[in-house]
Amino acid sequence: MDRLIYTALSGAKHVLEQQATASHNLANASTNGFRAQVDAFRAVPVVAEGLPTRTLVVDSTVGANFMSGPIQRTGRELDVALAGKGWIAVQSNDGSEAYTRSGALNVGPNGLLQTAGGQIVNGDTGPIAVPPQVTVSIASDGTVGTLSTDPQPGPANVLGRIKLVNPPEQALVRGDDGLFRLKDGGAVQADPLVKLSVGALESSNVNPVEAMVTMISLARQFETQMSLLKNAESNAAKASQILALN
């Protein structure tokens, strides 16, 4: 009896956790460059005295779905999408290097090139500073150049090159801020093979219909676990009646 309770109770708990993951993915279906989070169930035996007859169900975070999202043309000069595999290196709030696929870039109040989330974009030699009164252009290899907007425009000026990297996907882990980092906390060297598609943005790779179906399926699983707990309660009550008769 207690084995049924252990399994059903732990299963219901982790179904709720997976429901939260599915809800999070669905909420980010319109977030540029978002990578869906993937969870899975696994059975873990309860470590206790006696025989290992009880098993808990644990929600194991497998990682992220690194499949590319659809590319949508915007025509904006500071919008970039990664053509194929690769990441844009940015500076996270704690100063460490992190990676994102969100390419909606802009020039911040401090004159530095940054993402829509406010993270400073890393260049091959550091942050990329953009002077005022210039038109910014980005090449497919990440080179950032400017052309003056004064009445007498001058020659184009190269400001730097966006650091584009392509670390192994199994070496990446998602942070609480939504950015990806290396599991060992290090940094990756720039990869010249990573290219950008300028004037476009990569959409989220979350399929809203699939996420909704997953949420409905998880709700049914939770109802099943609750039914098992009710059956266990009913069986315990009937057993108590039989023992009372004896």
Search tags:
3-stranded antiparallel sheet, 26% helix, alpha+beta, single chain, 246 residues, elongated
> Span between N and C termini?
20 Å
Alpha-beta classification: alpha+beta
Number of strands: 18
Q: Segments where pLDDT lies below 50 for 5+ residues? A: none
**Main beta sheet:** 5 strands, antiparallel
- In terms of DSSP E residues, the strand content is 25-35%
Give the CA-based shape: elongated
Q: Report the order of strands and helices.
A: HEEEEEEEEEEEEEEEEEEH
Tally of helical segments: 2
Protein model, in words:
By secondary structure, the chain is α+β, with helices and mostly antiparallel strands. Helix content is about 25%, strand content about 30%. It has two helices and 18 strands. It has helices spanning about 1-25, 210-245; strands at about 35-45, 55-65, 70-75, 80, 85-90, 95-100, 105, 115, 120-125, 125, 135-140, 145-150, 155-160, 165, 170-175, 180, 195-200, 200. Strands 5, 6, 9, 10 and 14 form a five-stranded antiparallel sheet that branches. Strands 11-12-13 form a three-stranded antiparallel sheet, with no helix packed on it. A two-stranded antiparallel sheet has the order 1-2. α1 packs antiparallel against α2. The longest helix has about 40 residues, at about 210-245. It starts with a helix and ends with a helix.
